[in-house]
Amino acid sequence: MSLPPGFLDELRNRVPISRIVGRKVTWDLRRSNQAKGDWWAPCPFHGEKTASFHVDDQKGFYYCFGCHAKGDALTFLREAEGMSFMDAVAVMASEAGLPMPERSPREQAQTDRRSQLVEVMDRALRWFRLQLQTGAGAGARDYLAGRGLDGAALDRFEIGFAPDLRQGLLRHLAESGVPEKLAVEAGLAAKPDDGGAAYDRFRGRIIFPIRDARGRCISFGGRAMDPNARAKYLNGPETALFDKGRNLYNLGPARAAVSKGQPLVVAEGYMDVIALALAGFEGAVAPLGTAITEDQLRLMWRVSPEPIITLDGDAAGQRAAMRLIDMALPLAGPGQALRFALMPGGQDPDDLIR
């Protein structure tokens, strides 16, 4: 979507950056000079008690002297709230009392389609959660209880179950008026190469919802109940909502925890993150079935200047750690470092906590 010349400048002139930032921070009024638009607060991007985060209304910029986060109001909305650029512009326009420029028909159609996909994902999540409480979900409930997850933990992480039915979710969505094509587009179903009827992508699996920084359900991960399944863990495919190399599991809650002083702890899988969070390490995240990508690393650094990497203690985990070091070294600098917590041989964080 193209914006008229001068539109962004008009937004910045009308909306002081302190109004946007002030929703996420508590100003140090003794150090701030409100009359001059000079503001100080503890940084919302990393845990601290001192006010090292500076906001200048006259210049329209913020800068943290601790983690070196910097930018304007639009950058802040994108980094702190997980918004897309155009969503951030829309928020600023609303604050300024300016109408948003009209989208082209193609852009409007894309936006509407993404909204439809989010609605479909929410319907699927509700169905998965209901299935965990059925007779078919008894084995999954027993497994989760054996891993130390009580009812409160299941609710907190919205864990569900996909019964071993070829079209269980598809039938439910169809009864709700969701066409098969939309279920496939959302990554919930797959279409055979021979053109036959679509089938549920997740079958016989414990389901973990994956949410983006804005809290929208954008995909799912599934752990197989069958020990002989070809893939122990299965993630949804790339879709208009989900890019697994640019997202992290539990990002939103972890970001909130880090802003309150918790460390950002990076584990390998869903159960590691859940175990860490239940043990008090609420700033836990995990990549989504892939080795940590450069985009994920930069995302971690936007949350914390020194993430703690806790990969599994087996040979594969050690190789992954070395690959991460090789990738991170050229990118590291002030406010961008890594720390490693080495797991005992063959153990992961969940094993260690238990």
From TrEMBL:
All copies of domain Toprim, residue ranges: 262-344
Top-level taxon of the source organism:
Bacteria
Q: Which GO terms describe its biological process?
A: DNA replication, synthesis of primer
The question of whether Protein biosynthesis is a record keyword is answered with no
Q: Where is the signal peptide?
A: none
Keywords assigned by UniProt, alphabetized? DNA replication, DNA-binding, DNA-directed RNA polymerase, Magnesium, Metal-binding, Nucleotidyltransferase, Primosome, Transcription, Transferase, Zinc, Zinc-finger
Gene Ontology MF annotations = DNA binding; DNA-directed RNA polymerase activity; zinc ion binding
Give the record's GO CC terms.
Answer: cytoplasm; DNA-directed RNA polymerase complex; primosome complex
Asked whether the UniProt record includes Zinc-finger among its keywords, one would answer: yes
PROSITE patterns according to UniProt? TOPRIM
Q: Report the PANTHER family cross-referenced here.
A: DNA PRIMASE
Task: Report the protein name in the record.
Answer: DNA primase
What organism, scientifically named, is this protein from?
A: Paracoccus solventivorans
Designated gene of the protein = dnaG
